[in-house]
Design goal:
Radius of gyration of chain A: 20 Å
Order of helices and strands of chain A: EEHEEHHEHEHEHEEEHEHEEEHH
Oligomer: homohexamer
Number of strands of chain A: 14
Structural class of chain A: alpha+beta
Largest sheet of chain A: 8 strands, mixed
Shape of chain A: globular
Largest interface: C-D, 63 and 63 residues
Distance between the termini of chain A: 22 Å
Chain lengths: ~300, ~300, ~300, ~300, ~300, ~300
């Protein structure tokens, strides 16, 4: 193997520069892709098994058999990480992406069958975690705007599966940036309940409790699971319930939970400040506890990130 | 240029064998892709401008500026067709696919910005139309099964835009094949109205009229537009209205309309025969009129197709 | 055969007094019954074939094979009518009811299979049309009340099939009578659109046109079909569209269409008069035209009906 | 009284062979029926009062006054059981069905009034519990398929009332058997949440907790109540929440709860194995605890059942 | 009477300076108000009877009896107009507002009854039409933004009644101005279909036809009725159907219809130009035809309006 | 200041007799009003700060800046109460109403801007609490009727904000009084779940627990908060969940919670008795505990109220 990062592609490791997807792949033609995003803390993969278990739940839902079990996929992932980690700049962390598609879409490829394929495409690739991208978010807080475009309901595509048919997120983000160029979209479900953003779980604080939308309408994020655990450890009540824009606008605090940067405070919703417009005490307690748990000062890591790390 | 087919990729023609999409492209990461599929009849591109106009409507909806207008895109398309057509086997037709994505997804690519990109990916590629794939459909008729998984509503992703975040189609097709291995899914909207299949418009015949779901829930297909024109020419009433599974099951005839094979009879829905289970007279009149219009016997062309043509 | 009316019950004619349904029949246990109601005018069966065609559409939807075709069922029906008609009091008309159930419900019957049955129950029975029941309705007009209980949507049970799982009608009628003891319920669909009553189609007149809810939410009644034909003959526009309570309350006229009494004026909705509270001119024109078509003065027949005729 | 089982029918005990419902009864014409199903364990009626209380809640909802209170209905039921129990084959258990309808439907019966009746029909009948019907289910586990046909929402007919307008169950079961001939349908509500099957409550196990759909969309079954009690006794968490097909497909275990056979493991959903495809440990603990509570080895009883017992 | 404009208030004419509503009025406490807005062209009241007929439909829907019929209300209106018109500056037009509330809300007023009142409040007042307010709209075109806040559905408050419980419009307009300070909100219904703005009907042009949302979700505006008439006169097809944001964004033209300024071009939707971003040819034809019909150059009148006219 | 009660109106105290709202105010024209209702017990304002905090949440939701903070508004409110309390008849209590509107609606006022205004209208006024109005309710219990007209969903106007665009309440109350002249409406949400009445929260008792609809669909009333606290103090379980009409009809008890009279038993729903038709034991315990908390026998105070107190 080379000094170049490697990519796992349906049975083989290849140099990253040679990894591409055929334009006939169902992942491109249908957006039919299950995926996961895992990261390291100080070079250690964080909750890889939780991510892989969720991936296998997605695969079962999609009736995709990738011809290996979780143990084997873990082994391949660790092998890829072992190769690519040493190539990172000092102080950088690794982000690992798994994705699986049904494989070649035969109509476009010119071979036989209706919507069928030769077998799933399984890809694992990595990148230096671009923590510098979220530096401003950590300093100023994230901005959210509630979009008119709605989240796809579970009877069409279940958000509990991490998938890539995400055009609705893209459309909602377009709207959000019309209101506030720094903002991401906070999507509503068809009944007007809060769900999530295109890349993170949304959580709010009210009367000292952390409140989350229900798993009916969101990805049950691994970072959100960490928040639930930390809340239990810190004695902070955690509630799952239907929430509406009124709740977001009048929250005491709000924050995002997601693998790349763990937690980020939300300081503006629809251009209005959340609470006093600053990261709140419960957010800070959770971030500190998480940092302690993984032995990395997460906030400092993001603030100290440089483009060079990418 | 080579004797190999060429692909247009964001500004350049490249040999097909060198055309791939980066695994960081938003078309792969988000399924954020607008697309079109155009075909030839006897080597002449059919209604290319209708397809391109629809593509530009999709691009406006997605706020994507590809830096050229319809005239220029038509010119490039014709240039690609002129190169690739002579490479077809005798008697084969060309299928041309346009697709546009927002471009590189920066988080995964390791560059700056949230959801941003360096500029749209514009791709045009072609293939010999694999008409042999639908031979059995023409002989036996298409089979459809109404799935429990529902079509994405327009307030999430508008089906009037031809897009590739199509995981819901994939899920519905999985269901359909559990009932009838030859079947495709006929999707319902959230209110239980008929919409379309993953690859074609659905039309039924009742009391001598052709009935279609409304454009609220479907792609207003170019082939469906041809059907509307042919109905007008043949004096067949054409109605657009909300239809339910009862209407499909009790239709006198049903058929699919789509670019690759134009029209195909639907002979089974939920395993039950449609009408007498044979292609119906209105389907046959429409197919004949279409064949006459394009100077190609469409049915014969499909029946005579060979794998070699692919 | 006897001087008693006969009933057709799954293969045999039996005297009415011996016709009963086993308490294990799926028609009782599940309310799983397709049905039709046909009547005579001056002793002639009216549009029997339309009723039977609709019944066969219901049977196809329910995947029930009764082992005979429309021609045979028509023959049996005519035989039953020929026997029972002479037993009517002078001047009376015959009402004929067809109903089909999946047959014995095995769990309750103690035999084998889950939800299965030995074969469909097919029943045809008749009665003197109790026209006296609607005399007051013809004199004073029908009263309707819009209930809070909603009509079952087509994705649960399609109202285009005439079925007997009608508990929602029963519940809505209970509500209606709380407001107005003479009233029947006018049910709304889940979106708040007008649908139908438990026994009749609802039609209203606005600016000289007859307006009907769409067939998405209602039984496409044979009497309603007659209204459509009569409107065409009389030059009265007929429109099908989503209507709301506002439209009913502010209609110029309203009326019911149903097999037993053909047409009846609606004079009160939610206790408020419709128009001037009297049967309107378009209702009267339609009733006159219908009477002319069948050679019976329908209004006079109802007004002259006596309990003796029952 | 005879050696034949007796049936209670609106005031009288009659021999079972003479018990039938008039084809004019609203239970047949409208499917307007409230019902209960109670069974014995070792000849003792199980939770009869819970069933009767639920019946009286249904009757209040339907504004039906049957002219007696719970105590009197219990007395009649016990009298019927006392007569019919000795007629059972050795080792058999008794199933008792109560049902109440609004009585004769006057329009069809030829008497007076719109939708009215002479008084409710009250029927109690019994049968040997056909446990042999579920033997295969106990050996192989139940199979479920998620149907496209949806459960009727509570604003049309509240499922908390055990009623017999169940055509939607029938339609969904037809779909299920197209996929898997051994399967029953698992119905979704209009929002795509799991509800119940046509004859049982659906429960799943996830991370050691038993999860149930909410009572918004299901019958709060007496057997499900037993499960709640047993969970409390065994220290198994019990949660009520909106669940989606993803949850069913990825459950660790799933099972059905219903009066006739108490509990049955679900081993396949949409043809895919639930967990490892075998009855799970929590199911087995619950079944054992239930058996202990009633002094009958429920599993053995089903496995040992013979057709002769029917 | 004075040289001051007069106001009609529940039985009396009073000087405008003395007209106020008690803070206990149900119009204030409940927003329970039916209203109309009528204007003059060259001092002649335009379609007063159409407005009054719609008001009486609203009153019937609200069960409000104002103790006079349309003829009497017309007479009072004309008397008020006759007094106030001469007080207008030269060239100005009169706007007349009718509104009716249920009257005093007793709980707040301290008198008896639950929600009751002493009798309806009937108010008619006028103002110089502030045409200068729309000058910029006529020069640059109106801007619209599709808001996430939705229109109230007809099963809550029917938009066919012109009412004043309009907080949802206010909320949507707040959103619109966050995107584009000049914009008004274009509201979607709960299914994501286009409805109307807070003050005008929305119409679009596609392939030469004028398309409108259906009257299910909008006020059937008098100005919209004029457009329908003018379309018929000019041979322009007019279609009523469910439309989605995609249709608005890709329209050839769009415009607003409303009493104060009749018609205004919509040149931006969600900040994107409609068509070429200029008032379109069909808009101009309709405005010219309307001007001709009323003998006033409507565009010139708006462009020439001065604040003095207010 | 005078011996007349005073009213605070946008910066000034004025005598009540001079307080009126301009007919151009957005509170009248749009029903765009946030409001609160606070009362005294024995002359002491009860939970004023809770009311003011909720008002400020409403103002944030409406983006209305009234130019003062909670402390200043509390001060003004106390000043008004101090003046108006001594003017009450002996034994009377004070009701204080806050309301805020966006101010003058410019189109109607004849000044500039689209929907804009000169600044919010802030009004505080008081009245002797008309407790005699609810005497009969305390003696006989409140009557409720479930209306067909539905509550406005939170995606149109969030009920967590106390607002005055309440035409839907008015319409529902009209329906309720058609069934039972003493009844108020109990509104359902669009899915058929129970919400609230036009003036109070609805709570029911089942198996010893107090059950409430969720805050998705209701005002989280201050009195309801008191009930939650009292339940905790008394050891009565309190549950928030979706409830349906079946639950209301079959509740053991039901009651209303609202500021003016705190708690009132509901004894009839849809004309049927709740439980035994008398105020229930949990209602009585809660009322007694509340009376003890505020040092006023609430029931006696209502029963002893005289019109003179108004």
């Amino acid at each position: 193997m080379s000094a170049e990062p490697i990519v796992y592609l349906t049975g083989n490791f290849v140099p990253a520069s040679q990894a591409g997807l055929k334009i006939y792949d169902a992942g491109i033609v249908l957006g039919a892709t299950a995926t996961e995003f895992t990261r390291t803390f100080a070079g250690e993969l964080f909750r890889l098994d939780d991510h892989l278990r969720r991936l296998f739940r997605s695969l079962k839902y999609l009736r995709l058999d990738i011809g290996m079990d979780l143990a084997r996929l873990r082994e391949i992932t660790r092998e890829l990480a072992a190769h690519n980690l040493p190539l990172l700049p000092p102080g950088a962390e690794l982000g690992i992406i798994h994705f699986v598609t049904p494989g070649e879409f035969r109509v476009y490829a010119g071979s036989a069958g209706a919507g069928g394929s030769s077998g799933p495409t399984v890809c694992i690739h990595s990148m230096p975690l671009p923590l510098h991208l979220w530096k401003e978010t950590f300093v100023q807080g994230a901005h959210l705007v509630i979009a008119s475009n709605r989240h796809v309901p579970p009877q069409c595509m279940d958000p509990k599966m991490k998938y890539r048919s995400r055009l609705h997120y893209y459309l909602a983000d377009l709207e959000a940036r019309q209101v506030d160029p720094k903002a991401s979209a906070l999507l509503l479900d068809l009944d007007g309940n809060l769900t999530e953003t295109g890349g993170a779980n949304f959580l709010l604080v009210r009367n000292g409790a952390v409140c989350s939308p229900t798993t009916r309408n969101i990805l049950p994020g691994i970072s959100r699971e960490v928040v639930i655990e930390l809340c239990a450890e810190l004695g902070i009540p955690f509630q799952e319930r239907d929430l509406q824009p009124y709740d977001a606008i009048n929250a005491d605090e709000a924050f995002l939970a997601t693998t790349p940067y763990c937690l980020a405070p939300v300081t503006r919703i629809n251009t209005m400040p959340v609470g006093d417009g600053l990261p709140g005490p419960i957010f800070r307690r959770l971030l500190a506890a998480w940092s302690h748990k993984v032995g990395v000062d997460i906030g400092q890591q993001v603030l100290g990130a440089t483009v060079a790390s990418a």
